[in-house]
Amino acid sequence: MSTYATTFNRPWTCGREYDYVRECVASGHTSGNGPFTRRCEAIVNGIVGGQRTLLTTSCTDALEMCALLLRLQPGDEVIVPSFTFVSTANAFAIFGARPVFADVRPDTLNLDPAHLPRLVTERTRAIVVVHYAGIGCDMDEILAFAGERGIAVIEDNAHGLMASYRGRPLGSLGALATQSFHETKNVICGEGGALVVNDPELVERAEIIRDKGTDRARFFRGEVDKYTWVDLGSSYLPSDLTAAFLLAQLEARDEIQRLRAGVWNRYHDALGGWAREVGAALPCVPADRQQAYHMFHLLMPTPAARGALLTHLRERGIQAVFHYVPLHLAEMGRRYGGRTGACPVAEDVSERLIRLPFFNGLGESEQRNVIDALLSFRP
Ligand SMILES: Cc1ncc(COP(=O)(O)O)c(C=O)c1O
């Protein structure tokens, strides 16, 4: 049991998850690529408007598939934001590519395209963007920059399912995009993810890479008379049991988004005056972007104020958290040449950011407690 009355995250189910898992077991098809997998893929593909969506064991694995699809080699470079989860860089680094860290914008905390000209080299093969908090990056600038140079754009859309940028769904903008269904995301299945393939030329190899480097998908469609080892690949296919759970969540997506929008708006409406008084900044959602309501974060005026607020909330039974250690300053990032001062915005915000409890089932009275605790705080 948690020592917190209000934890940072609490997994939510709509109820149908259990029926679908039972149905899956009864059907006798519990391994991957069964009917539940295909139903999930159709829904995600419809949301994102992709060419083809493949469920994967995680967003991290979908990012690894991107590295394999682009045939990344040692010496290749991949530009990633420094302010992100490790997988955005690690999935490429394990294939020998070198992550090149870009600083983020101080408002949206998304990769700042103004830094791209300085970071790009002859060896740059991809730019990986992260739509932080499910709020789209400056995609027109990034796509134009990459397009002029023949560099692939990959969207790490772990936070951004159901969000859009200038009317276009997040996940539909890069050649490839990845989704996460980890228990902390809007739509969950414990551990899980998806690869959205937008470039039609990559669809067939994506299927092969997900299926241990075999053409088993073509065999099951009757397109070849046996399946065999045809490419690099790994075991990136989740079980149909996982997909059964996920299907119920995906079908409940409108309800999930309604609940999350409620939580987000209640924080936003209640905290504006207090934030101005204590010098904190609320999330920035540009008017041309529809957000995913993935999280609610505050930027406190100083690292000390962040520490004091975390303690203040903890003493009231409320679990708030912070992230990310900038990748360029992490032990691994330093091995790739990361040094203090290289991404000053990421360095600054990582010490001031705080994430408030945010989950589908955060009801009004429990949230009121959190808000009252915040309103009673002065640095
Ligand atoms: C931006 C980002 N990318 C990738 C991941 C990895 O997702 P998964 O746990 O599904 O591998 C996360 C996880 O939180 C994330 O926040």
- One letter per element, helices H and strands E, the order comes to HHEHEHEHEHEEEEEHHHHEEHHHEH
Q: What is the CATH superfamily classification of the largest domain? A: Type I PLP-dependent aspartate aminotransferase-like (Major domain)
Largest sheet: 7 strands, mixed
Radius of gyration: 21 Å
Through-space gap between termini: 30 Å
State the domain count. Answer: 2
Which architecture of the largest domain per CATH? 3-Layer(aba) Sandwich
State the CATH topology of the largest domain: Aspartate Aminotransferase, domain 2
Mean pLDDT reading = 97
Strand neighbour order, sheet with most strands: 1-9-8-5-4-2-3
Layout: helices, strands, pairs:
Blueprint: H1 16-27, H2 35-48, E1 52-56, H3 59-69, E2 77-81, H4 87-93, E3 98-102, H5 116-119, E4 124-130, H6 139-149, E5 152-156, E6 164-165, E7 168-169, E8 176-180, E9 193-197, H7 203-210, H8 216-220, H9 240-251, H10 253-278, E10 289-290, E11 297-299, H11 303-315, H12 331-335, H13 344-350, E12 353-355, H14 364-375
Parallel strand pairs: 2-3, 2-4, 4-5, 5-8
Antiparallel strand pairs: 1-9, 6-7, 6-10, 8-9, 11-12
Helix pairs in contact: 1-9, 2-9, 3-4, 3-7, 10-14
Bound molecules: pyridoxal-5'-phosphate.
Residues 58-60, 84-85, 87-88, 130, 156, 158-159, 180, 182, 193 line the site of pyridoxal-5'-phosphate (PLP).
Tags for this model:
single chain, binds pyridoxal-5'-phosphate, 379 residues, 2 domains, 3-stranded antiparallel beta sheet, Aspartate Aminotransferase, domain 1
